[in-house]
UniProtKB/TrEMBL annotation:
GO terms for molecular function: GTP binding; magnesium ion binding; uracil phosphoribosyltransferase activity. It comes from Clostridium kluyveri. One of its GO terms (biological process) is uracil salvage. Gene3D superfamilies: 3.40.50.2020. Allosterically activated by GTP. It catalyses: UMP + diphosphate = 5-phospho-alpha-D-ribose 1-diphosphate + uracil. InterPro entries: PRTase-like (IPR029057), PRTase_dom (IPR000836), Upp_B (IPR034332), UPRT (IPR005765), UPRTase/APRTase (IPR050054). Its cofactor is Mg(2+). Residues 8-208 form the Phosphoribosyltransferase domain. This is Uracil phosphoribosyltransferase. CDD domains: PRTases_typeI. It is an enzyme of class 2 (transferase). The keyword GTP-binding applies.
Amino acid sequence: MSKVTQITHPLILHKLALIRDKRTGSKDFRELVEEVAMLMAYEVTRNLQTEEVEIETPICDTTCKMLSGKKVAVVPILRAGLGMVGGMLKLIPAAKVGHIGLYRDETTLKPVEYFCKLPQDIGEREVIVTDPMLATGGSAIDAIAMLKQKGAKNIRLMCLIAAEDGIKSVTEAHPDVDIYTAAIDKELNKNGYIVPGLGDAGDRLYGTK
Ligand code: PRP
Ligand code: URA
């Protein structure tokens, strides 16, 4: 069964409040989303494997630990997920980046697929899917299904705000995928927006409305 982790570090809570505030413009919104993604990356990668390595410091030989095993792929769901990639790469600069293009039809709220480009060795990597908003869960469910169809096996989902309905749907569809979020909001409004949420993440990131 999926594990759901809510990351409530005070710095994340503070920045998330600024992100939610409708007075925050695109420039600050973009910077804050990137900063929160970077802070969350610390927790999302907590269980990556390490191995012992021999290092020579200027003083003596010693044994240290470095990352081992599977490498990471960050896969944003376009467009809004792209806003989290810079922050992730600050902490995991060697990660490869895949892209999945999906938009939610405004009437049916069903995701429509328009792009998919992934690292060739996606099946060998720890995959972190990024999307600030998990609303009905339709987009994340489809993106994860696309990843699995291309061979990905170890997938985790990272968002800023998740609605309870979206969490339930994703965990039912993909019980092997753990979810990391900074906030869990109660409900969706009649247009499928998360309440209280932050509005339309893509539009706020890129100034398109
Ligand atoms: C938003 C968001 C998610 C999706 C969440 O994208 O970034 O991908 O909606 O909704 P769901 O859980 O109900 O599927 P949107 O479709 O607005 O596209 P955009 O990022 O290009 O603006
Ligand atoms: N997509 C968004 O950008 N915001 C929501 O609240 C729901 C879906």
